[in-house]
Design goal:
The structure is a single chain. The protein is mainly α. The chain has a domain of about 80 residues. It has three helices and two strands. It has a two-stranded parallel ribbon with strand order 1-2. α1 links the parallel β1 and β2. The model has no long low-confidence stretch (mean pLDDT about 85).
Length: about 140
């Protein structure tokens, strides 16, 4: 079953003052609105029947996501083959620690590029060393 892309009415019109806005669905409420009346050749309205099946509803690539908040959780976690690791909203410091642990354990994390994260750490360390050198020269 192909799920239609639900777009707001008049979404093709240019936004005023060149403001970039996300075009999201708004329910049609007008008295003579053709979409609300579900007339032929007009775009579809979201309906209960367009939902994804319950078995696959909150899965990513057919696997259940497990959220990780810190490196300690990564140590204690036991993954089954139908689960995948996802890093929650954390600081860069925590992401670097998680990336190190994942590299040691050869784990793949869905929303974290381990190589890029570890490069950020090297850049951060170099910046700290430069600051230390400048403070030593001043003294």
């Amino acid at each position: 079953m192909k799920i239609p892309k639900f777009v707001r009415k008049d979404a093709k019109k240019k936004p005023r003052f060149k403001i970039k806005r996300k075009i999201k669905w708004r329910r049609q409420k007008g008295r003579d609105n053709k979409i609300r009346q579900k007339m032929k050749s007009y775009s579809r309205m979201p309906d209960i029947g367009y939902g994804s099946p319950k078995k696959t509803r909150h899965l990513i690539n057919g696997k259940e996501p497990r959220q990780i908040h810190s490196a300690k959780e990564l140590d204690s976690i036991k993954l089954s083959p139908n689960q995948i690791i996802v890093v929650a909203h954390t600081s860069l410091k925590n992401k670097i620690e998680i990336a190190k642990k994942a590299k040691e354990k050869n784990l793949k994390i869905l929303n974290l590029n381990i190589k890029k994260t570890l490069k950020k750490e090297k850049i951060k360390v170099k910046a700290e060393v430069k600051k230390e050198n400048k403070s030593e020269v001043k003294k």
